[in-house]
């Protein structure tokens, strides 16, 4: 049965707030995973650009004794070459973690705010900790 106008507004704010928090948690998790997985690329490209004479030309000791322009260029190229496979690894890691933690199941439909008696989506599947009892791998987050 439909909710009253005031109740619908309150539930709408609750659902929007919850979905926003879930979205920002997913975004934070995605940022952390990408930062950790892409750290080797970031470091290699940073040192390549830092020690190249045409870019930053640092006066650090390792730039003068170890890295010349050719090796700095090689570091830059290496960093950009290894970036593509690491992006794929980061995406796969995030997707695997999101599926295992069932993060996309936390998004609630708008009908939760409009109609009374609509259960929380994760509650219908046995709760957030249902994977400990035996996770149903056929559950899809977009249903």
UniProtKB/TrEMBL annotation:
Keywords: Membrane, Transmembrane, Transmembrane helix. This is TMM88 protein. GO terms for molecular function: PDZ domain binding. The chain crosses the membrane at residues 21-49, 74-95. GO terms for cellular component: plasma membrane. Belongs to the TMEM88 family. It comes from Aegotheles bennettii. It is a multi-pass membrane protein. The gene is Tmem88. The keyword Membrane applies.
């Amino acid at each position: 049965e439909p909710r009253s106008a005031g109740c619908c507004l309150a539930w709408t704010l609750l659902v929007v707030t919850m979905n926003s928090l879930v979205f920002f948690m997913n975004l934070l998790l995605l940022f952390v995973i990408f930062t950790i997985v892409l750290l080797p690329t970031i470091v290699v490209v940073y040192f390549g650009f830092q020690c190249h004479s045409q870019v930053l030309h640092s006066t650090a000791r390792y730039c003068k004794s170890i890295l010349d322009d050719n090796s700095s260029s090689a570091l830059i190229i290496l960093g950009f070459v290894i970036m593509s496979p690491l992006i794929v690894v980061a995406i796969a890691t995030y997707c695997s973690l999101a599926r295992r933690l069932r993060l996309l199941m936390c998004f609630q439909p708008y009908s939760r705010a409009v109609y009374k008696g609509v259960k929380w989506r994760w509650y219908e599947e046995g709760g957030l900790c249902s994977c400990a009892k035996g996770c149903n791998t056929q559950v899809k987050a977009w249903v």
